[in-house]
């Protein structure tokens, strides 16, 4: 699943009937986000695409969108790898007497 945020102000209201169900949902989502009046955090599709091109989609107009659901396993695996590195460093530090191992 990916999310496309359109500028609702640029889409004339009377043309919404010509939009796909997904496009209409995206416009509705953007309108709801504006009502929430809070900052949203995300990733730049270009940044994600440079590392994981399969997680970025591009529409006919050239707009790029991140597949956030597809990004979850990548992030979880990164956290696992970092935890393994942390554990190894803690073991090494304990062997050298730099820290006491509480495990």
Shape by Cα distribution: elongated
Low-confidence stretches: none
Spatially, the strands of the biggest sheet line up as 1-2
Rounded to the nearest angstrom, the distance between the terminal CA atoms is: 41 Å
Q: Average the pLDDT over all residues and give the rounded result.
A: 80
> Whole-number radius of gyration?
21 Å
InterPro entries: S74_ICA
Domain Peptidase S74: 1-93
Protein name: Chaperone of endosialidase
Q: Can you characterise this structure?
A:
This protein has a two-stranded antiparallel sheet. With 103 residues, it is mostly helical. The protein contains three helices and two strands; from the N terminus they run ααββα. The chain starts with 20 loop residues before the first helix and ends in an 8-residue tail after the last helix. 50% of the residues lie in helices and 6% in strands. The chain has a domain at 1-41. InterPro entries: S74_ICA (IPR030392). This is Chaperone of endosialidase. Residues 1-93 form the Peptidase S74 domain.
Could you name the key traits of this structure?
single chain; 103 residues; mainly alpha; 3 helices; 2 strands; 50% helix
Brief sketch in words of this structure:
This protein is 50% helix and 6% strand.
Summarize the topology.
Elements: H1 21-36, H2 45-51, E1 56-58, E2 64-66, H3 68-95
Antiparallel strand pairs: 1-2
